[in-house]
Amino acid sequence: MASFFKGPSSAAAAASSTSSPLYSLPSALSFAFNGQQSFTWLYTTIAIVLALLILEQTVYRAKKRHLPGDKWTIPIIGKFANSMNPDMDEYKKQWNSGFLSAISVFNIFIVMSSSKDYSRKILNSPTYAEPWLVHAAKHILLPENWVFLTGKDHVDYRRGLNNLFTRKAIGMYISIQDAVTRKHFKEWAVDFGTTAQPLMFPARFLNMDTSLRVFCGNHIPDEATRLISDKYWDITKALELVNFPLPLPGTKIYKAIQARKAAMYWLELAARTSKKEMANGGEPSCLLDEWVKLLADPSYKGRRDLTDHEMALVILSFLFASQDAMSSGLVYGFQHIADHPEVLAKVRAEQERVRQGDYEKPLTLELLDEMPYLQAVVKESLRVQPPVLMVPYKATKAFPISDDYTVPANSMLIPSFYNSLHDAEVYPEPDTFLPDRWLDPQSSANANPSNYLVWGAGPHRCIGVEYATLNMMLVLAMATTSFEWEHEITPKTNKIAILPTLFPADHCRMKFTPRKSA
Ligand code: HEM
Q1: 363 is in which domain, residue-wise?
Q2: Burial of residue 40 (number of CB atoms within 10 Å: 0-12, 13-18, 19+)
Q3: Atom of ligand 1 lying closest to residue 147 CA
Q4: CATH number, domain with residue 280
Q5: Which residue ranges does UniProt annotate as crossing the membrane (predicted)?
Q6: Residue 236 lies in a domain
């Protein structure tokens, strides 16, 4: 190393012995000096870069130890390219490499679990691991959003929110879901009536419209639901695992922030209006109204002083957590039923039995309770193509996850669900869509409920399980009785797009014509 510094110091000595300022050196001497100095800087820089690269590889290998995964990580970016273009085959390769495996992206050391037991252990160990929302999430959802709470604060806050999904509340939501779905199906009859159209965006809008009406009732106008729905796509696009970190104009995060601002304007207005109406003795007709009533109930034990902003943030978090997953679940529900005419026939037979041909009568929670076959269809569709493949968590301290491996503190932990949901011992013919497996109480599927990780597990398990399941049942029930279905198969039908929830790569092209008996 010493020789690296020889040049400049001797040149400096020469310069000082002439006691001339550097700029007055003869040009040839000056050139030699500058050239030598440049070389020194070059060597120094190369040495530092090399040292950092060696350090990077050493740290990666020290953390990875014996876990399967690349022996060396790609300098600096690691598997960044893969996270930009997620691919199901690449994921499967990673999951099948071991129950625990290692990767690195931008020097974030990541441990992926692919077995039911390890995934559940991560989700159920709040003292070692907590959700790691992507970097963009705090910009988009705002740092004060309850979704960033952890530990006891999270448990306490969530206890209050659980009250919004009681059976009584869900019963009220179903009448709203019924009305919104009928409205959309009138439009679908026109839009999808002549040629097959991609279902993905209409299904997204149906979900968004339904959720906004369920959450905010008539406290927001029609044009706001359209606007929020359109802008929300910008939020989805900003939630990639890795994104340009600064919210500069033109970036995805910047656009998502604008989308959040537009949504928050309407959601805060809805909270304000709901409070006024309930104070004037109005009857609850949406989730916000239920919530305001609950907070005013003398027996309510939690915090009562929720601001409009805070309530709006909770609704924003529900939309954030639900929209893509529910749209994915619904689109695959359509695709699976359409590709299995025997299932479609059974769903229709059940509808006929339960509703006795009266399809104009609004659906209720009690009627949906009498549709075990449809419930099995939804459950199986979500198993075959789980909308959420995995959720990122963070090891808050060294996490002894197995007898021979401790996840280093601050690593990312990714419990993935796919292998558990496709375990051939629990689900024979795991890739086949077989709703009947859920109808036999003795089946291995029913005997192993802990394998069913569609909704996650532990303290952060999805809060909207019943709401989402019933919504999918309701939409599919109504679609099977209202329409004849034609699914246009394309070369991309069975390819999976990860956005980041799963969709058929051709967005499921469907034609719906009104059903004669409907
Ligand atoms: C098919 C539809 C849906 C699927 C597959 C799904 C799946 C999930 C999964 C896997 C998690 C992470 C669980 C964990 O970390 O253990 C989650 C969390 C969450 N989901 Fe859902 N979800 C769906 C619909 C919904 C709906 C409709 C809502 C809104 C009412 C919702 C609200 C939430 C919230 C708020 C969380 C975070 C809970 C917490 O941190 O305490 N989800 N969901």
Answers
A1: 136-384+456-477
A2: middle
A3: 40
A4: 1.10.630.10
A5: 38-55, 98-115
A6: yes
